[in-house]
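PT: before anyone asks, these are the final sequences, not the draft ones from last week. 1029 residues across everything. Please model them as a single complex and drop the result in this thread when it's through.
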Amino acid sequence: MERAVPHAVPLGQMEVFQALQRLHMTIFSQSVSPCGKFLAAGNNYGQIAIFSLSAALSSEAKEESKKPVVTFQAHDGPVYSMVSTDRHLLSAGDGEVKAWLWAEILKKGCKELWRRQPPYRTSLEVPEINALLLVPKENSLILAGGDCQLHTMDLETGTFTRALRGHTDYVHCLALRERSPEVLSGGEDGAVRLWDLRTAKEVQTIEVYKHEECSRPHNGRWISCLATDSDWMVCGGGPALTLWHLRSSTPTTIFPIRVPQKHVTFYQDLILSAGQGRCVNQWQLSGELKAQVPGSSPGLLSLSLNQQPAAPECKVLTAAGNSSRVDVFTNLGYRAFSLSF
Amino acid sequence: MSSESSKKRKPKVIRSDGAPAEGKRNRSDTEQEGKYYSEEAEVDLRDPGRDYELYKYTCQELQRLMAEIQDLKSRGGKDVAVEIEDRRIQSCVHFMTLKKLNRLAHIRLKKGRDQTHEAKQKVDAYHLQLQNLLYEVMHLQKEITKCLEFKSKHEEIDLVSLEEFYKEAPPDISKAEVTMGDPHQQTLARLDWELEQRKRLAEKYRECLSNKEKILKEIEVKKEYLSSLQPRLNSIMQASLPVQEYLFMPFDQAHKQYETARHLPPPLYVLFVQATAYGQACDKTLSVAIEGSVDEAKALFKPPEDSQDDESDSDAEEEQTTKRRRPTLGVQLDDKRKEMLKRHPLSVMLDLKCKDDSVLHLTFYYLMNLNIMTVKAKVTTATELITPISAGDLLSPDSVLSCLYPGDHGKKTPNPANQYQFDKVGILTLRDYVLDLGHPYLWVQKLGGLHFPKEQPQHTVIADHSLSASHMETTMKLLKTRVQSRLALHKQFASLEHGIVPVTSDCQYLFPAKVVSRLVKWVTIAHEDYMELHFTKDIVEAGLAEDTNLYYMALVERGTAKLQAAVVLNPGYSSIPPIFQLCLNWKGEKTNSNDDNIRAMESEVNVCYKELCGPRPSHQLLTNQLQRLCVLLDVYLETESHDDSVEGPKEFPQEKMCLRLFRGPSRMKPFKYNHPQGISPGKKNSES
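LR: through. Structure below.
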């Protein structure tokens, strides 16, 4: 006689487990494909999900089109940062950076193209990589994270060329100055450092927490987000979100928001920021709060503006954080819908 | 008419010409004496051809005379007048003749008409006759076809085949020489043979009947003998009882049980047989017994006329009662409800003994009118348990078996037909009666071989014994794990209430040696209270807070920090992990919505529970999770960055060794603990 194995037991267990996993999911990073039609999102379980923005935004979008086209296990630990080159999706988590071909990523069982580990000095633990930054002029990638250094990697050869040392605690974020080959980095030690890539030297240091107007000792010193535009720099974290004039190293505007911000970016003549709390904040450069657009996650960690010229119809703002959902804003005024893991 | 006839008469007198007219005139003259002269008769005698000749001649004569008159007149003269006169007279004679001919023609025409008419009438008559004849022919033809179509009865009789007939029939019936050529005679002969054969068979049937009667009589005699044997055997059995007991061979008991089992309703019987079989084959700790009154069960199967009587009686009674009890309709409905929910007087008891001598008593009932099975459960332990307050529900018969299979909470009837029955007597749901009747879990139906269609379509349909057998083993195992996990929880709760998190030695490696945070409270809370807590919203929204679950509130303290943990305990524990939701009261209220690290702590106990399961069958999960929570709170408090602006030492000095206080974009504290290295914020460095 054939036994009817009651498969219902493990199924119930699986369902509960999946629900819990979704409930405790954090989406750390996002990246838009070079064609502008797909969005990659990486979570704390090391999975990367690829969403089709064009399908979700099309007029006949169904519930399924808001689900990932494909989800794969990319890293063992969380996927902290992702960037896209013309052909590759680069993802970084604990200790390693991996490259995936965008052209093959939608296929089942996609394997990484290559993986690299920066030369770490410590052997006690694997430092995480918190930020990736592409330097298009040099065709190189800058990685920064747990080992308090900035590593530059030549994308052509895959070798690590330089290590920029100076931070005394781990590095949170990176930003590139477009005109001169200079990189900004912000870290847990509370300093924003400006590096010259040609000489590999630190050229300027702003210790934000030492400025009384933006220091908030109960929150800590850490700088978790950075953005730059010509001579201007905006940074936030433990200290208040502040707009700086780089040449004179002076804070010009302090944005009146209490909760620490986790992501900031310049957009046209606005500054967009997100952090604790459900909202995406829009600031005038003068420090005036232009709008607060509520999203669906209790806390946001990353914003992504899809400005790929190849897909003007997919020009959206996406925000992700402490939930399994990626909020999509078709204009800056309100949340249109959420993509969900 | 008289004028016409007088006119006619006149020319006859004057007529003087033509020889044929001469003779006729003579005859007609003689006729004229006696009777009236008839021109009609004359017509018959005259030849029309000659009349026509005469007519032509007369016309010529007239023309000639007219021409001569004309001639004479044009010549003129005295003598002319005489000649003209003469000629005129001649022409008058001719006119007479013409007139006569005209009359004749008329008469002929009339005569012709009459003749035609007569002929036509004749033809009509003939036609009628013809039609009659045709009709008769048709009728006859119909009769013929009817005759041809007539089916004789013998055609339906399945006769023996022709060869067989000639082979087997005696020659005086078959008469081969006559019947070979004549199919009619042949058929008759075959029918004869059939009759003959049937007669013989009837004879045989009668013989058999008498034979049967004889055998019946014999059986009767033998039965009498056997029944006289029964008391003797009984007495022998009785005598052998002490021997059986002496030798520990409970044949008799088993026999009695089987005897009783015959009176079980089919589902209970299936359960009984399968459970006994499973107990004998695979699981010696399972014992099966039947309870209840056999006599009552027998009474259920009384001859039907009794019950019919009853019914009519009760109908009459009902009428009376409706009259009598009109104002107390509720009472009557109550009776009906009781009747509907009636249990079969017999029930099957399963005792499942677990390793630690605790026993799960299951009593299976069968609701006859609803055609479903229910179960009541009771757990007894070898040693008397001190029941902790929070463990109240753990072993209660109402919840101990809840959700043995996911979603099977046993509060809804599994038989879709029942809903209609309930509607009739005004039962809203079976839920209100389960305490009394027992729970109709789905697995109980399956053990009893009852199969009801589910709301969702199903792939496999297995019936009866095979259904029961296929579920017996898994269900028994599930029951055992359920009881054991419940008993384990029961014990754990006792110490939890005293603020001790019992960590067994084989789970010790999961935690650092020194844990400062202490569990201070462990209480059970109601489902509604859980739903109303402000920090459990996510779980409620995710649909994980069903009312079948058990809910607890734990309080972990260290110094001024108080961590509340709302716990959802799924009945399927420990295969489905308990779910913790946290709320920390320290420097303000912190929950997962405003503190990423609280969220990470929840994730550590809820999602990474697998490493906390400990040795199988992972009964230590809940206590390990609680201990982990204490460790997490320690880490949280010790790594909290010191606010430089506040004077004085830190409340919680850092005691645990960790490389980094924060890590990653969300500044995660080093919650991971790796034995034996200590606390680390990320994954273990396996490469080094």
